[in-house]
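Researcher: Next entry: ABC transporter (Nocardia mangyaensis).
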Amino acid sequence: MNLALSTTLETSFEDAVARTRAALQEQGFGVLTEIDMQATLKAKLDTDMERYLILGACNPPLAHRAVQVDRQIGLLLPCNVVVRDNPAEEGTVLVEAMNPQLLVQVTGEPALAAIADDAGRRLQAAIDALTADA
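Model: Predicted structure:
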């Protein structure tokens, strides 16, 4: 199983972030949290790294269904989506969304499978929309 659903974009970092937010919104996900890893590591450890933004995306109906199955599932929510500069290829940005099937694999709870399938379809559609807009 792949850890992430991902794509590579030939665009600016700012454009990739804006397009990712819009694509997530089209699929019913809101961004609840945002972690700027580059700024955080610079401030806390005085370490430099490429631009790396973690978006905590949540689809409330899917989250509600998952919590109804397993109250501890909140430990694995929201679905993280990473937008990061690709250090291997200048001028490209990687967008990676957590594969929701990990929720099923980590918990061993088969009742989460349909929810993970729905979330996976929506996240993959968001990822696909990014390349369709290119």
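Model: Note for the record: The radius of gyration is 15 Å.
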